[in-house]
Amino acid sequence: MFRNLRFYRVTSPWPDSEQELSDMLAENAFSPCGSFSERSAGWEAMENHEDALLCRRLNGADLLQLRTQSRVLPLAAVKEALEDRVAEFSARMAQEPTRAELRRLREETRDKLLPKALVKSERNRACFLHSESLLVIDTGTPAKAEWLLDQLRPCFGEFGFVPLTFNNAPAELLRRIFMGDAPLGFSLGRECRMQDASDRKSTVNWMDFELSDNSIRQHVIEGMNLTHLGIGFDEVMHAVISDEAVISKLEFISGDAADNMDGEDPMARLDADFVLLTGVIRRLVDDLKKLLGGYASGA
User: Fold this and answer.
1) Measured on CA atoms in the order 233, 239, 244, 246, is the torsion positive or negative?
2) Angle made by CA atoms 113, 147, 128, in degrees to the nearest 5
3) Is residue 249 in some structural domain?
4) pLDDT of residue 176
5) Do 45 and 125 fall within a single domain?
6) Model pLDDT, residue 258
7) From residue 113, how far is each of 72, 73, 84 by CA, in Å?
8) pTM of the full predicted structure?
9) How far, in Å, CA of 186 to CA of 219, rounded?
């Protein structure tokens, strides 16, 4: 259901009911990309019927889905059409276009092609954990997380949030797990990324390796920093955790809960996965909070 977990503490009020949240999200509901628009985004329901709510509340958590639709206009197609327009202009005016004219022709060419371009959609999910006032976004990059947050802002009269940080650096926990001193509930995985302390661009990735091997650990002993580490958690999931406490490559060991629900209603499958996911996230965040000295001031 989620492959990435990027955490934000919400500092402003959150709606009390599923209906209230859905009504607020309707302020920025998804509508298809217009003929002359390159991109549109908005919130959509998980259920495919007219009266479906734009969120789903289960197990003390809300599930949201953002849909972003964009027009696919290959640069090669724009370039070829532009060449024809430039040639036509040169023949008509008996001179090459100036830089300003070339810019205008490029914009006109793109505007002419845009309505004919195909559209594609991308969906990103997020969940809000009420007990922790925690928004969890399924995205691997800060830019996509910011895009989702930008779509939430118009729905709230006030929307405050801060990235989740802890009093102690997650890097110390990564090192502890890596060096064989994993806290209860955590185990060492089979991949990691290291960074040279004196050159941030100098990195090395270890994929599908026995990380407890002394020859690998020696790199950290000699001063390389761990930036990403594969872990197991609670004997239910594998993931990679970064030194900023961002989770990626999340995978449940026995598969999603829905894997054992063949033939069930799609929404029942979604609900089962969501309950499993939010339960694990709560335990993970609670453990990180204890191991890293609690949330940092302002987080």
Assistant:
1) negative
2) 140
3) yes
4) 96
5) yes
6) 52
7) 10, 8, 13
8) 0.86
9) 22
- What would the two tokens of residue 100 be? 């300003």
Q: What is the pLDDT of residue 121?
A: 94
Give me the amino acid identity at 281. Answer: I
Pairing of strands 118-129, 61-72: antiparallel
What's the DSSP call for residue 166?
Answer: B
107-119 pLDDT, tens digit each? 888 888 888 888 9
Domain of residue 221: give its range.
170-291
- φ, ψ of residue 262 in degrees (nearest 5): -55, 135
Residues 38 and 184 in one domain: no
CA distance 173 to 213: 19
Residues 6+ apart with CB under 8 A from 87: none
Q: How high is the pLDDT of residue 95?
A: 87
Q: Which residues of the chain have pLDDT under 70?
A: 255-263, 298-299
* CA nearest neighbour of 238 among 271, 190, 192, 275: 190
One-letter amino acid of 280: V
Among the listed residues 254, 251, 229, 232, the one whose alpha carbon sits nearest the alpha carbon of residue 240: 229
